[in-house]
Amino acid sequence: SLFSNAVGDTTQTAIIDALREVIEAEDKRHPLTDEALMAQLKKQGYDISRRTVAKYRMILGIGSTKERGEN
User: Fold this and answer.
1) Using one digit for the tens of pLDDT, what is the confidence trace for 2-43?
2) Please, are residues 53 and 17 in contact by the beta-carbon 8 Å criterion?
3) Beta strands in 1-71 (DSSP E)
């Protein structure tokens, strides 16, 4: 196969797992934006774009900031 799911030395699966963990740990009253999720992942060593965060969030079936917020 010419293509893999590797992003640098990190697999897509590892990034998606890290994203899931960050979202599960967020304050549900003030959910993180895709930009803030990107920053959190960058702190963990995952250098991905905001668009990629949105794509992976959609793969996980996780809604946007507004959809995840609790009233």
Assistant:
1) 445 555 556 888 999 999 999 999 999 999 999 999 999 999
2) no
3) 6-7, 10-11
